[in-house]
Design brief:
Length: 171
């Protein structure tokens, strides 16, 4: 099993993963976010990304106002900077979007350890399913994503899940 709690695995990955590592390292993103236990989640780590996929970085946020101030101080000059407070799964969340070279970046923070956040939990389950089901299954997921279907619903379609966001967590 890959250790997804660091980004070192990207160095040995596919071309997009290697490029993601270069960009993240160049801008020292994980070093800047280190106090927030950052983890790269989403589709790029598990190789089911499409051209428009972003780099999703989840963070543990104990103090919302401090985190917002930190994000503003460190990232407000980046292209397409948008910072929002949202509610995700009935939990207060902070979402920051910006561009780093060719990559859309999303920094997502909740007052919950990163390994307990749904983005990480979904990714781990999806990774295990992809390992078990093989390359044909992976290609079907990618094709559904290219048609505009989000990741969890794509897994739901292929696995016959009624509520993929909840049902995937039961795997």
């Amino acid at each position: 099993m890959i250790d997804f709690t660091t980004i070192d695995y990207l160095k040995k990955g596919n071309e997009k993963q290697k490029r993601a590592f270069e960009v993240l390292a160049k801008y020292k993103l994980f070093e800047k976010l280190k106090d927030y236990s950052p983890i790269l989640a989403g589709t790029i780590p598990i190789e089911i990304d499409i051209e428009a996929s972003d780099l999703d970085i989840i963070c543990e946020v104990k103090n919302e106002s401090d985190f917002i101030e930190f994000l503003n101080q460190n990232f407000q000059d980046y292209k397409n900077f948008i910072l929002e407070k949202v509610t995700a799964n009935d939990e207060k969340s902070i979402v920051l979007n910006f561009m780093l070279e060719e990559f859309p970046i999303e920094v997502f923070g909740q007052n919950k350890p990163t390994t307990e956040q749904n983005a990480y939990r979904h990714m781990i389950v999806e990774y295990k399913i992809l390992q078990e089901k093989g390359d044909d299954f992976k290609q079907k997921i990618i094709e559904l994503k290219k048609k505009g279907i989000k990741t969890e619903p794509a897994f739901g379609i292929l696995l016959g899940l009624k509520n993929p966001y909840e049902d995937l967590l039961k795997f």
